Amino acid sequence: MTKKWGLLLILVLFSIFSAACSDKAGTSKEDEKEKEETTPVSSEVTEEASTIKIGVLASLTGALESYGKQTKNGFELGLEYATGGTMEVAGKKIEVVYEDTETKPEVAVQKATKLLEDDEVDFLVGSSSSGDTLAVLPLAEEYEKIMIVEPAVADSITGSEFNPYIFRTGRNSSQDAVAGAAAIAKPGVKIATFAPDYSFGWDGVAAFKAAAEKLGAEVVLEEFADPAATDFTSNLQKIIQKKPDYLFVIWAGANSPWNQIADLKIQEKGIKISTGAPDIAALSVMEPLIGMEGFTVYYHTLPHNPINDWLVEEHKKRFDGAVPDLFTPGGMSAAIAIVEALKKSEGKADGKELIKLMEGMSFETPKGTMTFRPEDHQALQSLYSIKLEKQDGFAYPVPVLIRELSPSDTEPPILNKK
């Protein structure tokens, strides 16, 4: 009897031990399986969290193609300069995705939505056209992502359509206007304006008129033309009939009016021409305007600082000796601004937090020090009063410095309702 009970006890203990071992083995397999399933996800999350993604919207085809490519080249050089060649900031890799807006606002919205939803970018940059940019602004606020506006110029971007996620390294129409008016406006002078019939032109003319009238000049005609037109004869005839002292031209794109202005011999009729000196391609058809006084956003020989020296040298190395053009330094400035903001945030790309850090932030650029004005996030910056001169070895009139207009000289009015 004792033997039976002893044997039974052994069997019971064996069963308990076997069950325990079985549970332990099962748990280990489950843990291992769970580990196998979760490890790749954790790795993916870590990799994602260690990358800053930037979506750049630009006109890489179409009428403003040259502007888009200048911005792209400058942005890439700017990231390299600001990160010391590492393409990292605060321990995070920087990844850039470029999208072509085709200079069509509806396409710009589609591409921006793709960048925000599919690519999950942390920042937006762009665009070449004011129309494209204005269409995209609400998305930056909806997705709570910082958008650096470059080089779109319309005042309304940081004015009536402003939202707190928008910061602009590009100059605005009012800054252009102050610089343009400084060159020609004074009491008794009569001025006609000529611009494309969309936001860039409207804002530019409105700002120039305000600046010129403040200096005592009279704007006698505001003439607008279809931005896609190639024949401006009727527009220019209206200007000739008004007999102004100056014609101030605001234009962007390959279909510029300079050849027709020359063909109609407007200057020979006693009307002086003034404008913002454009990119090198447009300067090449402005030989009839040699001697013109106006302003420019940038020409590579005008700023004197180490960053511009680096930009000119590196650009020549990488682009077959070509110098940086009108909007190349703007692309570089946008990149520097993002890297400097991420240094301040220690790599955190939260839009709300970045707003606090970027308001009032100063940073060095190829054009000198820029500062994001807290009230409207417009970068205060230098512009240049220039005269177009013929120089040996150049196939275009060269902008020669009259004087540098400081950020305080060109500070525009605050036009938003913040």
UniProtKB/TrEMBL annotation:
It holds the Pfam family Peripla_BP_6. The keyword Signal applies. Residues 25-46 are annotated as: Disordered. Residues 51-389 form the Leucine-binding protein domain. Residues 1-19 form the signal peptide. SUPFAM superfamilies: Periplasmic binding protein-like I. Keywords: Signal. Residues 26-38 have a biased composition (Basic and acidic residues). InterPro entries: BCAA_transport, Leu-bd, Peripla_BP_I. The keyword Hydrolase does not apply. Transmembrane segments: none annotated. PROSITE patterns: PROKAR_LIPOPROTEIN. PANTHER family: LEUCINE-SPECIFIC-BINDING PROTEIN, PERIPLASMIC BINDING PROTEIN OF ABC TRANSPORTER FOR NATURAL AMINO ACIDS. This is ABC transporter permease. It comes from Psychrobacillus glaciei. The lineage of its organism: Bacteria, Bacillati, Bacillota, Bacilli, Bacillales.
